[in-house]
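Hey, can you fold this one?
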Amino acid sequence: MGLIHLILLVLLGYASSRKYNEVDLTINKLTAFVGESGLQIRCQPNGKTIVNPVWMIIEFEGFQSRRPMVYLFGKDGKDVLEWGEEFNVTHLQSHITATGHLEGIQSFLQLDFSHVVCGDGGRYTCSYGGFDKMGKLRKFSTSGDFVTKTIDGGPPKVSVNGKLAKPFEYYKVSPGEKIHLVCEGEVGKPRIPIFWLLNEIPKPVKLLGEKEGVKQGRLEIPDDNPCTFRSTVHLFYEMGKTMTVLTCKLAFRTMSIILRP
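Sure. Predicted structure:
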């Protein structure tokens, strides 16, 4: 049976399709950081309804759409593996190895990841099709999710009244004067919050909130990297009477400026 016929079988949805019992999809890690190794996704039957397996497919639904990722089917008595035409095969093969075999209950289709990349996060669906003992074509499927994570992309950037600041730069600000500070950074996935901290020497460090002038800004997801979020947080601050250190904190990285009355 050719590849085109397999696609037609899936799209037309011949016979029944259930999401339990007859086929399993095992993802050994529910989440992993970009660059992490050891991810394995395995599709295999968990029932005896299909006695003559014809194909297995792993589909991927990610940032853009759901598409067949890899096919396993029989041709001339041999197992054939083919990558989905809508994917960059060179990119997939650079970090994923596909293996599989069609032989009754021993059938399987497996993906082994040498390392995780940003685009690997999404929903994986395993479809398993073939003939039952009555000669009827059957199809079963099940799905599972995998989440990629990234750390922040670097130290945050702070601007004061529209001008980019340097780390621990001094500013002369009169008591009662209001200034506008902006902290911007790449916050990774899942989104890491950006905090503003206030240190009015010699008072203890204080976490600032909306009541103290903190306002969340825009959140952008670049088209070329859905694993990185660019986030902006504003601080509208009124200067007090003592020297103050204002710090923007993003994960374990910080950026501080010093205000003197």
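The helical segments are 3-12, 89-93. Let me know if you want another pass with a different chain boundary.
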